[in-house]
Amino acid sequence: TKSEMKQGFGSSGAVVVATLGALNEFFQTGINKEKIYNLGCKTIWEVQGYGSGIDIAAATYGGIVKFLKGEIPEKVEFKDFPIVVGNTGFKAKSKPIIESVQVFEKKYPEVFESIYDNIGQLTKRALQAFKENDLETLGELMNINHGFLYALGVSSEILEKLVFASRKAGALGAKLSGAGIGDNMIALASPGSEKKIAEAIREAGGEPTVARIDEGLKIEEVK
Amino acid sequence: TKSEMKQGFGSSGAVVVATLGALNEFFQTGINKEKIYNLGCKTIWEVQGYGSGIDIAAATYGGIVKFLKGEIPEKVEFKDFPIVVGNTGFKAKSKPIIESVQVFEKKYPEVFESIYDNIGQLTKRALQAFKENDLETLGELMNINHGFLYALGVSSEILEKLVFASRKAGALGAKLSGAGIGDNMIALASPGSEKKIAEAIREAGGEPTVARIDEGLKIEEVK
Lengths: 223, 223
Description:
By secondary structure, chain A is an alpha+beta fold.
């Protein structure tokens, strides 16, 4: 897995997995993806001290991954679809964001628990939409999900600019990605609208990248 | 009640209540506020064909009103606090917005029911915050509430601009008001920050009004 993003889109997870994959190849240890995933999680927990491991799962398995903390990630079948990533240009530090959410969570436990429940329900529904290749529903779920993340307090002015610019340019859905506040948002493009969305993101002050869902860890060449 | 807003902040409700109040005074019918509230609701239902009646309640009773559809509105005790209203300049029609929410509600009934539940919980908590004059909590509740409204699909680019501009300028909380998409947002000002918030709203493209919570229907002069 290569990462050309300079900031905040699971790049540290990607680097960890790529390094583990390269070492695995070099030493011919022959460990499988599940083991690489576990080692990757161990690495980020030791270095960062936190993290769900979802970045490691995405980088290891690629594609669309069903991720539940404490369970082995599962690959989800899907048809190829275009996404546009919009970088806010603002590097948000995950740790203080997570901590500020935790402060609110302590003060409003029922509300926050309900938001987490809802996000879980939306995700289940999204799995179904992936299976049915129902991009319209997927986009709606992304928009609703973004609203819940907003309620948690992790959206920002620049994220909203990029999210609304994408929607106006024809995105079926748009949401922040990761811990929020800065870093990236992603938009689900309706067929053929990638370029228009990318331009809209750039005009709104973001750095767009038209992307496709790729496979995970792979060895491209060994000399 | 006077309304200097030219659009979308319960002005039609205010006009209805003011007219009923004037007629009541003129004909010396001596009906009380509860009766005026009921007549006001009847009027908007006949003219608009919809409406919760909350605008009528606010215009009749003034101050802070606890409003539950089908129940007589209750006045809530509070200490005076400053709010800044930001007009988006965009007149949103309530009916199509409500209808588009209903379409989503049909498709995602559990999620939308949960959002309504949460909004109800936040409102109960807000009543307590009013009693305790806990403006900080009130602001947080406004922000969370706005997130839920966003999840319903009724925020917009311009509303987000004004909401984030207000927060950055020192508002304790900010949220859309009414049906959303356009019309107005309101910001709860921290003491002394009204002017700064008003300026920020203007810079962000909105029309600010620094306001205070006033009493409801009153007869100012009879000649």
